[in-house]
Automatic annotation (TrEMBL):
Lineage: Bacteria, Bacillati, Actinomycetota, Actinomycetes, Micrococcales
SUPFAM superfamilies reported in the protein's UniProt record: FMN-binding split barrel
Name the record gives this protein: Flavin reductase domain protein FMN-binding protein
Species name: Cellulomonas fimi (strain ATCC 484 / DSM 20113 / JCM 1341 / CCUG 24087 / LMG 16345 / NBRC 15513 / NCIMB 8980 / NCTC 7547 / NRS-133)
A Pfam family that the UniProt record links to this protein: Flavin_Reduct
A Gene Ontology BP annotation from the UniProt entry: pyrimidine nucleobase catabolic process
UniProt GO MF annotations: FMN binding; riboflavin reductase (NADPH) activity
Length: 180
């Protein structure tokens, strides 16, 4: 769908008389939905850009596509709007501090280290469960955000680590003890 078609759909939805959730009620629903934690990183000319994302989804295995959402008001949005490629690191259960750092505004999120530049230039987070390097294929405006679609080009994985999960404003570790 084109951006114009999506804007028309949004306008149609806004004009309907159906009741809708308030922003607070909507946030409450998603606080109760656990999500994996990732850090999206890229090189924007001579500076590094990164942010925490719990909105990463698998879209398709063939071709390999994933997506994430980013608020249009985010300080990272201008760099993502220009990016041709980026990396997404899926954090391990021991990396809640990394998630918090990349979610903090107004700091140099890369200053503490703990990352490595790929030969192509994108930074990936050391010790992450896995990472994907991808080419941005589409940026779709949806509400006050953008849905950014990415074609996976390369990946790396770490063995013997468990993922970090965010649920109800708290980090959780998944391990053997949590298996059903």
């Amino acid at each position: 769908m084109t951006a114009e078609v999506l804007r028309a759909l949004d306008a149609d939805l806004a004009q309907q008389d159906e009741p809708q959730l308030s922003p607070d009620a909507y946030k409450e629903v998603f606080r109760r939905h656990p999500a994996g934690v990732a850090v999206v990183t890229l090189r924007d000319e001579d500076r590094l850009v990164g942010f925490t994302a719990t909105s990463v989804i698998s879209v398709s295995a063939a071709p390999p596509l994933l997506a994430f959402s980013l608020a249009s008001t985010s300080s990272s949005w201008p760099a993502v709007a220009r990016a041709r490629t980026l990396a997404i690191s899926f954090l391990s259960g021991a990396q809640d501090d990394v998630s918090a750092r990349f979610a903090t505004s107004g700091i140099d999120r890369f200053a503490a280290g703990g990352w490595t530049a790929l030969p192509s230039g994108e930074p990936v987070i050391d010790g992450a469960v896995s990472w994907v390097r991808g080419r941005v294929v589409q940026r779709t405006p949806v509400g006050g955000s953008y849905l950014v679609s990415v074609r996976a080009l390369a990946h790396g994985t770490t063995t013997e680590v468990t993922p970090l999960v965010y649920h109800d404003r708290t980090y959780h570790r998944i391990g053997d003890a949590t298996a059903i």
